[in-house]
Amino acid sequence: MHEPKKIKRNIEIIFVMELQLFGINHKTTKLSERELFIINDSNQEDFKNFFDSSFNDSIESFFALSTCNRTEVYVYGASLNITQIAKKTLEFFGSSDYLNDDLYFFKGNEAIEHMCYVASGLDSQVLGEQEILGQFKQSIQTYIGLGSLNGPFQKLTEDITSIAKAARTETQIGFNPLSVSGLSLKIVQEIFEDPTQQKLTIVGAGQMAISVIENFYTNGITNINAVNRSKKTLKVNNSLSIETTQLSQLGALIQNTDILVTSINSPLPIIGKGLIEQVMRERKNKPMLLIDLGVPRNIENQVRDLEYAYLFTIEDIELVTQENLEERSSEALKARDLIQKRIESLNQEQANQNNRKEAYIALKDVSNNLNEQDFLELLNSDDPYTSLKQIHLVSEDQLQYISTLTPHAILSMIKEIRSA
């Protein structure tokens, strides 16, 4: 009688890879606190280098997401001490004294679920807002380009993005979808009797700035200037492109501006109270609406003290309206249910793949020790699983993996192994 053989491994130790995340958002922090932990174009290279040098032994792959609502860091690796990683990260940004108690952590399935909620807009302050999915995908592409996101985690982010997209398209979570640029427009429409007669200046050249321009232009506000650090052509859509003016000319330009919207990456405000005071004198105190979409903020908060300057920050904007909230809240329950079911399917698919890999290893081990008679009998068997049990070359662990395969799959694998 043959003795069952133990499964041989090509490696002595198997590290279990795990997804974990940490972050802050609008639920745990105020805007002034979120400004202390921002990862964007200005610092993401430094952040990447810090992560590579500090956690290279435990982290295989990672990326980060910063929006006006949140900053989150997603890591994939073995033996992760996520609390220590978060602590060192906040120290790197100089914000550990302020934010340590405001962090949240997720791992495994809970992390996947949270990422799906974030990407679909279910976790946004404006429930179902439409800009977050694009921001999530852009962040993934950025870190793929940096070489930080790859392998199994990159594949998982593709699955998460697909699930989030399904949550938006297969439910009405985006019913009459709201966006930050859409809410900005609503403020303008509520303040000005005839918004189409107002002059708009937008500071910035990123996706948010383009979204604002397109939203305002579509709604009849066509007198638009754009300002950026460098000259750039903003292609808003197929019929609208705008050449930016350099930032150094902002002071002169906004003297004739009724609506000033800012959305530019800057660690410090680029528009101070003194500049707006000077502009208001030139305008003879004609009222000006200022909408600051920057995180960190682009406009000094002291501008609020000026009588004819009306400043709205990202926090103010998101509290302006929760239109259609009842409909979107109802759909949010459906979207959450869809996400949970898709994650269950994803887990089952992954388990099936793992079982097939283990079964293949087991069958390869068995096949290498089959004599020709046993091999022929196995090929002619209608129940190869039972035949393998009777051969007594297979351990209980091996049989458990093989039992997940169909008879056809077992025979196909054995033929492939023997012919290799």
Describe the model:
By secondary structure, this protein is α/β, with parallel strands linked by helices. 47% of the residues lie in helices and 15% in strands. The protein is built from 17 helices and twelve strands. It has helices at 31-34, 44-55, 82-92, 96-99, 108-120, 132-145, 151-169, 180-191, 207-218, 250-253, 273-282, 314-318, 325-367, 372-379, 384-391, 396-402, 407-419, and strands at residues 17-25, 59-66, 70-78, 104-107, 200-203, 224-228, 233-237, 240-243, 245-246, 259-262, 288-292, 309-313. The strands form three sheets. It has a six-stranded parallel sheet with strand order 9-6-5-10-11-12. Helix 11 (273-282) links the parallel strand 10 and strand 11 (288-292). The longest helix has 43 residues, at 325-367.
Low-pLDDT parts are: 1-15
What Rg do the Cα atoms give? 28 Å
The span between the termini is 28 Å
Mean pLDDT: 88
Q: If helices are DSSP runs of H or I spanning 4 or more residues, what is the number of helices? A: 17
- Strand and helix order: EHHEEHHEHHHHEHEEEEHEHEEHHHHHH
Number of strands: 12
State the share of residues found in helices, binned by percent: 40-55%
Shape: elongated
Largest sheet, in brief, is:
6 strands, parallel
SSE class: alpha/beta
Order of strands in the sheet with most strands: 9-6-5-10-11-12
Percent strand equals 15-25%
